[in-house]
TrEMBL record:
Family annotation (Pfam families): SSPI (PF14098)
Keywords: Sporulation
Primary location group: other
Subcellular location: Spore core
Database matches in InterPro entries: SspI
Highest taxon above the source species: Bacteria
KW Transmembrane (keyword) present: no
UniProt family annotation: Belongs to the SspI family.
The protein's name in its UniProt record: Small, acid-soluble spore protein I
Induction: Expressed only in the forespore compartment of sporulating cells.
Amino acid sequence: MNFQIRDAITTNVHGQSAAELKDIVVDAIDRGEEHLLPGLGVFLEKWWQQASITEQEAFTQKLEQAFAH
C-alpha cells in the first residue's frame, strides 16, 4: 500500500470520535466499493499496531471463523 494513502487517510480522520470512525467503517462496508478497501486497510493497520497480542489473537480467530463459512 502506498504511504501517501496511509498519510492522507490518517490526516483525514485525525481527531474524529469513535462514533465518527464507526460511521466511516459502516459506510465503506455498506457501499461495497473496492476503492474504499485501502482505507479500511489503513484502519486495520493502525488498530493492529496498538493492539495487544491477546486482541490480535482474538481478531484472527474471528477472521478464521468468518472465512470458514
